[in-house]
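Handout, page 2. Input:
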Amino acid sequence: MRPMKLGGEYIIFGENALEYLTQLEGDKKRALIVLGGSSVQKSGYLTKIENYLTSADFTIDYFTGVEPDPSFNTVQKGAQKMVEFGPDWIIAVGGGSVMDAAKAMWIYYEHPQLKTLEEISPPNKIPALRKKAKMACIPTTSGTGSEVSRSVVITDTETHIKHGIGDMEMMPDIAILEPGITASVPPKFTAATGMDVLTHALEALVSKRANIVADTMAERAAIDVFTYLPAAYKEGNDLVAREKLLLASCLAGMAFTNVSLGIVHSIAHAVGGKFGVPHGLANAIILPYVIEFNSQDEKAAEIYRQFAEKVGHEDLAQAVRDLNEMLEIPAHLKAEIEKDEEFEAAIPELAELASKDGCTKTNPVIPDVDGFKELIATIYYGTKIGVQL
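Output:
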């Protein structure tokens, strides 16, 4: 028996969902807004957020500049800002990196005695939160599902290794899904973040912990990605497609945070940390190869077959490749990295990292380190699974 948690206190979605900010309550009414770049400000949505909060008598401060694949150094700086300002609401406005960073900052704000990334990394537990603040997440991309997940990925500042950390304490209290806020996301990032959603959903479907509740959410999310991602990619202002993808991201997030993921993420974490490949893009490239690899498991193969039928295809790996091609996503990692000798030299390290990643244990087929080496090389060069290099 494994208990499930489907989000925090509330999930608010649809046009004008941001208005819910006027209902936030707190003893001090101090809100720290965590941001990445300036896109939210340029789109006008930051002003809307500020106006709703000030109308509810909140004092506002900001932590800006969260980078893609946030570093522990950024987390430490944000936590210090929180200690100085003393918010009772932390409001993350951004993509997965911003939300992940804000959740990690929250831990160190609530527990300043913690000093290192290792102290919150597995097998250590996250200490109880919400003694100082609650958290609201406003995703600006349709990708990670971090607004309803227990997970964060933080990069070690010194080693550049990505640490995946999961604990239900980090489930945000409020998730606000405003479709218009995602309309300004450029096509390239729309594609990568949308494929991140698809990866979450398809990995959840074949997870060793899969169950009927998570399956229902994951399947709907994956179908909607196939249906609406091409439209959002071609026309960013298609708010119907944007809302469908934002909800798909949330559904996939609720699914995988309860049943976990698989080796697409294990490999993406390793490759992304070592070679700087953006997470969603790495997932998109790796996904069809892992579908083929996992299909040696009869149960997984049947799940893939049945799902492929629901989106009008016979071969799910090929369906993903066709979608990638439509979205102008490379067919192999070599096209993105272009460092053959350096990559080949790194394969043993990447294989070790992937084998130890927390996502690996719920994959339907678990390769040994040598198996990871072969698979990673295959994904880099774009050869068929099982072909010796």
